[in-house]
Design brief:
2 copies of one chain form a homodimer. Chain A is an alpha+beta fold. Chain A contains 6 helices and 7 strands. Chain A has helices at residues 4-17, 23-32, 39-48, 80-83, 106-114, 141-147, and strands at residues 52-55, 61-64, 70-71, 87-93, 96-101, 121-126, 130-135. The two termini of chain A are 28 Å apart. The structure holds a DNA duplex.
DNA sequence: GATAAATATGCATATTTATAGAAATAATAG
DNA sequence: CTATTATTTCTATAAATATGCATATTTATC
């Protein structure tokens, strides 16, 4: 159907922001948003999204999205920092991105990021091997990754 | 029974070393090792172990163990600092935590936090007396506090 | 356009997983 | 030891999830 892509998007948003313990539950939430599908479809959606069901400390369950860690493999057009292999990973939490680098590299790489002059990025803060990247509002994770010349290599 | 502990141990070993796609399957493997339990018990075991079922790229499923939280390094772990009063406070804003320390301590403590290898924490960035702690998505404030060997003095 | 191929969905149902008791086993107190 | 209490496990079953197949919808090809 036309709306599969957007449904998957909505599902990830829901799972990112709330604790959902069963497909029935998620089904209801989707229905609230006028997304009416059956449990069968949902099961398949979750499979596509690689969402896993995991037990929580409080005795309940939660459907969790796969980590958005992209282990780094540079695209054709290499920036200096990715080609040096100094960037280890980038992962998101909320609208923030955290980039891990080799020890000592963070400041240098952060400088590079800042000096791309990309409007998508509001600013960076670097420690020794960690950079906090603060995107502007409304900037997607994908576009940040693209900006960093990173491609996905999600693993199991 | 007396062998619950060891059974859980065996289960983790199995799950660590092979791809198991259903409880029935795991059940059979356990039976091979003369560990005869019912699926009901297994379901509870997996719940205790916080094992999650996640879709694989090849269209099948796999039971995966939770990320290992590394045990503490011999010297200077976090509780040393917290118990000696170098950590002044920790407070949350959104999903971020900000820890205040005695002047000059921040980097050292941040290093300790990083080196706990806790999967709950995406990264830290330290100044002189302030540490920004970025938890992974979906990680509760409580679990961050626990991780820091801190207890609550108030609400949420 | 028409038609073929590919993709997505629902229905019905099989399969899988979780849980409420009851029963068994172990631990503890007197 | 015996009674009491707590754990662990099982049986039976409920609840949740996955999937085969038929149908609808979209996309590609002519």
């Amino acid at each position: 159907m036309k709306n599969k892509r957007s449904r998957l998007q909505v599902i990830t948003e829901i799972l990112r922001s709330s604790v959902v313990g069963s497909q029935e539950e998620l089904l209801a939430i989707l229905a609230d948003r006028n997304l009416n599908v059956t449990q069968a479809t949902l099961s398949r959606d979750l499979k596509v999204l690689k969402v896993s069901k995991t037990p929580l400390a409080n005795g309940t369950y939660k459907y969790v999205l796969p980590p958005v860690t992209k282990t780094v493999s540079p695209t054709g057009n290499l920036s200096t920092f990715t080609s040096h292999g100094a960037v280890i990973s980038i992962e998101f939490s909320g609208h923030l991105a955290v980039m891990k680098t080799k020890p000592g590299y963070a400041s240098a790489i952060a400088w590079d990021i800042d000096n791309k002059g990309a409007s998508e990025i509001l600013g960076t803060i670097a420690g020794d091997d960690t950079i906090l990247i603060i995107p502007r509002e409304g900037v997607s994770r994908e576009s940040i990754l693209q900006l960093m010349d990173l491609t996905f290599s999600n693993k199991d």
